[in-house]
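Box S2. Input/output pair 1.
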Amino acid sequence: MPKKIDPDQTHGEKVIRLFARLLFSSRPHSLTELAETLNCSKQTVLRILEKVERSLGVDLQRLKSGRQATFAIKNRKPPPAGYLSQSDMDLLWMCRAFAERLVGKDLFSEVQQALFKSQTLVKGNVTPTAEHFASFFPGTIDYTPHQDTIRTLIEGMNERRVCKVAYKAAASERPKTFHIKPLKIFTHKDTLYLHALKAKDPWAKKWVEPEFNPLLAVHRFKTVEIADRTIPFEVPKEYDFEKAFNQTFGIIKDKSFRVEAEFTGWAAVYVSERIWSPDQVITNEGEKLRISFTSSSQPEVISWILSFGYRGRLLGPDSLIRRLAGEVARIADSLGCQAPRN
């Protein structure tokens, strides 16, 4: 017996998904589209269509589009139209494509289903523009195994509840257990992070104010649970994510310093097209581009400069230049050669 394409999805789930796809869509769907949606064979789709029609009393319309058969629900009562423009939907489909790699399979399916429902609010029989947008995936994290973590953190933020977490930092051998007040999930370089405040264990007698609050990568959580559902925490009145993160270069927030760098060729064009820090100053000197900005993360500045190869040159501060030179020497040593002089 051949192996099922998607053994984790029950037959009942496929029936519901197919029915919802046809019910909330404003256009017919081909057999190929439905097979891709359900991740099953076309023969299985035909059997499910027959069950939807017979068991649910749905009157299906079978049409021809070229050589392909298409299916839609007959006499479907259209929802109120005109609440969304096609331009609105185009933007939503674009956001859906860009977010795919950040939410994982299950949450992405829910997003996609919500968009199919929203498509019916667009006036006229228009074609969804999902095929116009895509994402490029190399080096990204698969968040499918972390769906429960994301949902629990969202619940904690919505209800302002302290969460008990087990978290394994990149440099740690074992997870550490502690309590947090989740404030905001945000993205940086295709990675999901949680900005949180450390919290007191609801059942502990002693509490020592922490020296710093954690910046946590969502994929490194081992467990997350709501610790106390009786007393909500309060977000500090002075809390401002934009001021905390979007004022200087780097996600690591340490002592601030001023960076000066110089670029040539394609690197100069690339740097000039982007905002690296709100206070950046860019000047052109012939074929060279010079930029200065404030940063709070030495490792990220070094990584940034190295990413441009010989097209990027760090001009200051001196302490960071020395640290960069040491890093280049170690790279050369790992390759079994001397660092180039030019």
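Box S3. Input/output pair 2.
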Amino acid sequence: MSNIKISQKVLNQEEKITLDLLEMVEENSAITQRSLATELNVALGLANSYIKRCAKKGLIKVKQVPSNRYAYYLTPNGFAEKGRLTAEYLKQSFNFFRLARGQSDEALRDCINRGWNSVALIGKSDLTEITILSATELNVKLTGIVDAEASIDNIKYMNLPVVKTLSELDTVDALIITDMEKPQNTFNEIVQFFPFDQVLTLSLLGIKRQKRNTPTFIEAVSEKIG
């Protein structure tokens, strides 16, 4: 099975920001650039750059209103582009879900075959949620989620405890990497103190298992099947 890059699960960043901007302008033509920047989670200067870019492409129209403010309106081209980007986003999101669900199912079945009765997930992301759904259907016990960025003690995600370090969980037989921000770094750190062969990775994350020159779990399964 071929790998996909994480960024392919959704639109690339520029397209996603453009889609979000068009949606916000459609909802509120009087929105300020500062509010746009806050909602888009980008710097004010970058928000201004995207507005100018969309205006230059004919996606939005900018009008000056009293009090030296501006109003933004979607043009017919803007509505069409928003529809195209929305459709593409939904298509890619569905493809990602289908791929992630299949690979998480295979990883969890491998845990069952090896007699690993308690599994922890490393990282909180969309992939975490999908893996939890798979575990529920396959009746695999998940002991919790390790998320170094967790800022609150004793929190839960989908009824699973979220902890900062693996030592905070009970006995764990295996780990599945579900971090989508820095999966390779997470894997490299985990295998320093947890048995290498008991750390499972999904091909879609593009993790290189260099320590023992071992293929990712899904690749190994594919080779066996082939």
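Caption for Box S3: Residues 1-10, 212-216, 218-226 have pLDDT under 50 and may be disordered. The domain at 99-225 is CATH 3.40.50.720 (Rossmann fold).
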